[in-house]
Amino acid sequence: MPDQSTPHVPDPEAAAREGISRRRLLGTAGATGLVLGAAGGATGYAAAPTSAADPLTSLGSARAMFHGKHQPGITDPMQVCGHLVAFDLAAGAGRKEAAALLRRWSDTARRLMAGEPAGTRDTDVARDSGPSSLTVTFGFGHSFFGRTGLDGQRPVALDPLPDFSSDHLDRNRSNGDLWVQIGADDSLVAFHALRAIQHDAGSAARLRWQMNGFNRSPGATARPMTTRNLMGQIDGTRNPKPSEADFDRRIFVPEEPGKGERDWMANGSYAVVRRIRMLLDDWEKLSLKGQEDVIGRRKSDGAPLSGGGETTEMDLEKTDASGSPVVPINAHARITRPDQNGGAAMVRRPFSYHDGFDADGVPDAGLLFICWQADPLRGFVPVQRKLDRGDALSQFIRHEASGLFAVPGGAAEGEYVGQRLLEG
User: Does Nucleus count among this protein's keywords (predicted)?
Assistant: First the structure.
């Protein structure tokens, strides 16, 4: 998936400060002078001796803002590593306990995203690191509203997703009252945030499921490039861009929500989360042409089979010498095009995952698919229904877990995420 969203802007004061609390913005011994381009790709690399006085590289000093119109982790560039975790409220916990929990979580997220230690019980895992583009995002599942006596505030858009033919869902790893997305460009920073969130849950909520993922590191390619998934395919070329005029309308709930929407969701979004296992042994048996026909794009550069470069518009009418479509009728890229789905749009911001091998040596690997939209009934659902009816990729993947979460707008200074719902 491409980094189509607004790039991180490093904290302008971070490099000038000698430190941020205990997590000082200092390079570690052996750090390299990594120079990042505007979109996060490496434009130069120089090895040089370092000392404790050298500033942290731009990778570590990059900082996302906790407070804002929207929550972090939606339009921020994809990070190197991520954790997805769902909680259920504990027996007897209700609206009061949920409000106290979201207040704790928001304060912890604000601190950690600024490169500071957690407020209490800090584990020192990220003591030597900068913010490293950390984002922490919070959402509410369908069941949350019944548990807190807020059924009347549940949005229509949060109705359960329909069943799909490709579903092989593990209910124990699906849904949940509360959902947290953590992403960072350093694995220790991400793990540190995960442990802090789990500690903060205390007796108010219990862990339901957790999933861990990764992406390509910034600077790993000679120039900024759309990322590849574990099938080796460039993934997410047509992701909508914040620069597009209708981006906010398609991805975020408007400030004045319409019928069936709730005021507390203003400037929020809906996250569909799917654990999609890739049947890599079967996929890797295909020839290069076979793989390209399944996707509808060249594997080397992501260009459509009809010609051009990665961002060239796909010519769905182009045929070969025999009169057959150059882009097969059931090609994944053809079926998922927004103009073939009534304009359905979503920001895809996934992580790859690998959870080892089963007893037969088959890899348990694939995609932690996360997509964002203003209304999943107009975004994810129609596209997935169409894929169900004839996507060539379907025989090489299996949807094993699923969740849908309402992610409210960002918290203003002095507020916590979800305050308008829980105290409204």
Answer: no
* pLDDT (tens digit per residue) in 300-325: 999 999 999 999 999 999 999 999 99
Active site residue 167: no
Q: Which of 3, 122, 185, 235 is catalytic?
A: 235
Q: Where are the beta strands (DSSP E) in 90-230?
A: 135-140, 178-184, 205-214
Q: Which residue bears the tokens 């304009």? A: 343
Q: Which residues of 358-394 are buried (b: 16+ CB within 10 A; e: fewer)?
A: eeeeebebbbbbbbbbbbbbbbbbebbebbbeebbbb
Q: Which residue in 36, 347, 114, 81 sits closest to 211, CA to CA?
A: 81
Write the CA distances from 176 to 104, 142, 166, integer angstroms: 19, 8, 21
Q: What Å distances lie between residue 423 and 136, 153, 196, 290, CA to CA?
A: 22, 12, 24, 55
Count Cα atoms within 13 angstroms, Cβ side, for 102. 30
Residue 358 CB partners (closer than 8 Å, separation 6+): 364
Instruction: For residue 173, report the phi and psi dihedrals to the nearest 5 degrees.
Output: -115, 25
Nearest to 74 by CA among 371, 376, 379: 371
Band of pLDDT at residue 28, cut at 50, 70 and 90: very low
Strands (E), 27-156: 33-36, 42-46, 81-89, 135-140
Q: CA-CA distance, 139 to 418, in Å (whole number)?
A: 9
Distance CA 104, CA 416 (A): 8
Distance in angstroms (rounded) separating the CA atoms of residues 100 and 140: 15
Q: Residue 13: what are its φ and ψ, rounded to 5°?
A: -95, -10
- Reported pTM: 0.86
Structure tokens at 14: 């971070």
Helix (H/G/I), strand (E/B), else coil: 276 = strand
DSSP state of 366: E
Q: Tell me how far CA of residue 12 lies from CA of 8, 9, 37, 38, 43, in angstroms.
A: 12, 8, 17, 15, 21
